[in-house]
Write the structure tokens for this entry.
Amino acid sequence: MDGIIDCETHYFSDGFLELLRSRKTPPRQEVHGGLRKYFPEPTAPDVAIAYPAVLEENLLDLGDSRIALMDQHGIAAQVVSLTTPGTDVFELDLALKQAREANDVLGAAVARHPDRFIGFATLAPFGGDESARELERCVVELGFRGVNIHSHVGDRYLDDRSCWPIFEAAQRLDVPINVHPTLPLGTMLAPYLGYGWTLSGPGLGFGHEVAVQVSRMIYAGVFDTYPDLQLMLGHCGEALPFWMYRLDFPYIKPYIDVLGDHPNLDRKPSEYLVQNCWYNCSGNFFNPALLACLSAVGSDRLMFGSDHPYESYDEACQYLATMPVSEPDRVKIASTNARRLFKLDAVSAD
């Protein structure tokens, strides 16, 4: 299949990588020969992941090699965002500075390959109006089509009011926010520890972290204030489609909350997950997860994602080709839905 829109890929900038290597506290990186040891979470400074140098080389590539790989697998365009931890968890002044520099690097790549790269801004999520202005710069001046945010910073979550200027800007600019996983907060990590990266990262910690973040945004009334705001969720929704009925309990079963402690929302939580969220299969090439997501949100909200370079295009594209879905739905997942979300056809028509 050709013409595929890949809704999740990542990059590093040289400057961001140098910063990680210069730091003594997380987020930081250590070089051990052909391996890289990465410590992502300031509140859990001993949790690390090791990965080969070739992965880093692929993250740094925003040029011909990446384009050639896309051509090889029929990828028409990639959504590209700064890899975890983004600039999110740095102290605010440094986060604002690094976000602007990383966005400029990606902006230059988008300018070189405007039909192949769909830029997503990185921001300091708690930077308030300044971060909102940076998002507007990225969309208006650099041509980006979304923003990537990595959940919490310390004990502050995405329902914190200092994040809301970003939500307002994203709605006004009509671009989606991708909520990307990272490690849970250190005080939440105790049950995950003792097994290295296995449990705290992609095993369970990542998905739980995003599910908590998005649920907090819903219960805080973010989507009542910004009803047109759209989120993107990878890995078939981080299990949120599975939990829809349970998240609705206080709203459909009054005996669950007889004291009336649940937030007063305009809609049921599940409705926000259907009407304000888009889902892709990045790094979760598993039919039961896909079918649960498809059944919960419908084929008009599901898209393809590879999680390149963390995942193999051979596996991701083979999965797309063999998903147990109808051919019209396969086309929607491969490209049509993403083209609609990012307004790619409108751009082509200009």
